[in-house]
Amino acid sequence: MPLFLIAATLVHRVNRYRVASLLVFAGAVLLIGAALFSATQHVSFGIGIYWAVTTATTVGYGDVTPHNTIGRIIAIAVMLGTIPVVGAVFALVAGASALNRIRRLMGMDRILPPNNYTLIYGSHPVLSRVLAELTRSGQQVVYVASVRPPDLGDDHHFIAGDPTDENIVRASHPERADRALIACESDADTLVVAVIVRALAPELQVYALTQSPSVARALDDLGITHTLATDELIGHTLAKSLEAPQSGNVLLALVESDAYRMVETEVGPDLAGQLLSAVRGRTGGLVLGVYQNGHISLGVASDPVLAAGDRLIQVQRAS
């Protein structure tokens, strides 16, 4: 793959200058041919340009034709000097387009968005659903994994490589991203990627998917507080479903419906100092709870007092 990348880069640079040179040559032949045709056939330069273009493009309407030997020689020169050149330009452009497509599919295209994109590291099976949701919401995605996922759209960017390799992570420019999701198949890889990402982009908002609560706590010690332990989530969901059979359906309804969405809104001065129970029903959506001091409170066991900077977790109607 490195040899192919080097070759592709060289071909791209050569093609760029070659296309420009060929276009300049073709334009010069058209102008010279039009001028000579105008002078030898006693027509205006505008008609000469018209004749040269129809000749070079093989349209050949026949309304303007050479009437002597010198005119026919000029016509031959224009055809031989432009038709192969124009064909070569189209071939080079088509080849460059195919090459860019191959580079993109193989994860060798490192031209990323300047900012405002979501980074995904890993190849956890749940990521297919995450990609579908991000695509539907119109977010730009840069996906880093050893193998390109089949459901990654052409409008997203793919970097092929081991996400536990610092050079690969560095190539994804986490410092320019809005957020990052780490979802590797093993918790060990998730920890390694988290350490690298945190070192390269200390301010980046990082989310991680793990299998066990102990790894989630280790990630929390790294400063990655947005973690989700799948074993813990499934276990608690099943336990609650045994207590209340419809609780699992309620959870699915919250995350699957397109009619509404879950959002976080920051508590402003107008709500600061009030009880969570007092603001429910006054914010234009269903308030599920509040995130404060690194923890979620649903306002059931206690009724927390809101402070500026806390974040309300709400369900709102989709716009």
Structure explained in plain terms:
This protein is an alpha/beta fold and about 325 residues long. It folds into three domains: about 1-105, Helix Hairpins, CATH 1.10.287; about 120-235, 3-Layer(aba) Sandwich (Rossmann fold); about 260-315, Regulator of K+ conductance, C-terminal domain (Alpha-Beta Plaits, 2-Layer Sandwich). It is about 50% helix and about 15% strand. The chain contains ten helices and ten strands. The strands form two sheets. Strands 3-2-1-4-5-6 form a six-stranded parallel sheet, sandwiched between helices. Strands 7-10-8-9 form a four-stranded antiparallel sheet, with no helix packed on it.
Produce the secondary structure layout.
Layout: H1 2-41, H2 45-56, H3 69-105, E1 118-121, H4 127-136, E2 141-145, E3 157-160, H5 166-171, E4 179-182, H6 187-200, E5 205-210, H7 213-221, E6 226-229, H8 230-243, H9 247-256, E7 260-266, H10 276-279, E8 286-292, E9 295-297, E10 311-317
Parallel strand pairs: 1-2, 1-4, 2-3, 4-5, 5-6
Antiparallel strand pairs: 7-10, 8-9, 8-10
